[in-house]
Amino acid sequence: MSIDAITIIDGGLGRELAKRGAPFRQPEWSALAMIEAPEIVRDVHRAFIQSGAAVITTNSYALVPFHIGEERFANQAQALATSAGEMARAAVEMEGRDTKIAGSIPPLFGSYRADLFDADHLEDIATPLIKGLSEYVDFWLAETQSLIAESVAVRELLDTLDTNNKPLWVSFTLEDSEHLDVPRLRSGETVKEAVTKMADINVEAILFNCCQPEVIDQALDVAQSVLQDKDAAHIKLGAYANAFPPQPKDATANDGLDEVRDDLTPPAYLVWAKKWQTQGASLIGGCCGIGPEHIQALSQHFTSTLTTATLTTDTLTTGTSTK
């Protein structure tokens, strides 16, 4: 008997920063804590590690001109990215666990806004983030990606800048509708197209995030089918949903602290996570509105499940009782 071990990813940083009294306003969003109170960022990382996260994500999501402005970006982006890496690394060292650090490469021109993608300026924005984070991260996470072209361009830039060839995970955000013909990115491109391209450029993992859990399970089914057809089962699948109601097509993520759904309690979120596991996901965490209490529920369940499976396997092998 064997089961795939689940790697638990952290949850959303923004709301946890606000809960802990970190400076938090628009347009800077979670970047403001990086500028004025980085120690609170470190403490939020620690809270997720204590809750069982095996992966934490750097607080570099809002370190883009869209949030901090062109002038501040030009003068401070790399230093702020370095600080984001330092705070994540400090949290890991303070907790004394083998927690991995994902270097967040955000949507560089605005969340959910595939229409704002500008290939000519991608390198200018991504480069200081990559250089600032590189020393501190174990792998890269291009997250909340709305279209395929941006993810491909990030892959190509990392091939140039990252001399250590750290792995790349790519996570797509999906249209929040269960009534589409097929699962789609917010650009309108299909999940099938996106997964096919990610397999072609040999990413280590493909995930879906910052959308409702109800649409992620459809995407996982498509992704698993594509990877099987391409003989790319080595590529991991993952999911980390947000707790928002459906977001309209003209929405921009992080344009305010949106209301969260009352029904996505930690036990309810765990139900989705267990379903994602059956669909091939081995990387599971949370996005906006998913806090340490949700991650703790995931960690407790999947750790106990793995322990039980190991004990059962050992018993079958040795013929001894575990009682």
What key attributes describe this structure?
8 strands; 8-stranded parallel β-sheet; globular; alpha/beta; 323 residues
Strand order of the largest sheet: 1-8-7-6-5-4-3-2
Largest sheet: 8 strands, parallel
Count every beta strand, where a strand is a DSSP E run of 2 or more residues.
Answer: 8
Stretches where pLDDT is under 50 for at least 5 consecutive residues are 307-323
| Count of discrete alpha- or pi-helical segments spanning 4 or more residues | 11
Shape: globular
The CATH topology assignment is: TIM Barrel
**How confident overall, as mean pLDDT?**
91
CATH homologous superfamily caption = Homocysteine-binding-like domain
- Spell out the helices and strands N to C: EHHHEHHEHEHEHEHEHEH
The top level CATH class name: Alpha Beta
Distance between the terminal alpha carbons, to the nearest Å?
Answer: 19 Å
Query: Could you say which structural class the secondary elements and strand pairing correspond to?
Result: alpha/beta
Level-2 CATH architecture: Alpha-Beta Barrel
Describe the structure.
The chain has 323 residues and is of the alpha/beta class. It has helices at residues 13-19, 31-36, 38-50, 65-68, 70-95, 122-133, 148-161, 191-200, 213-229, 266-278, 292-318, and strands at residues 7-8, 55-57, 100-105, 139-145, 168-172, 205-209, 236-240, 281-284. It has an 8-stranded parallel sheet. Mean pLDDT is 91; it is low at 307-323.
Write the layout of secondary structure elements.
Elements: E1 7-8, H1 13-19, H2 31-36, H3 38-50, E2 55-57, H4 65-68, H5 70-95, E3 100-105, H6 122-133, E4 139-145, H7 148-161, E5 168-172, H8 191-200, E6 205-209, H9 213-229, E7 236-240, H10 266-278, E8 281-284, H11 292-318
Parallel strand pairs: 1-8, 2-3, 3-4, 4-5, 5-6, 6-7, 7-8
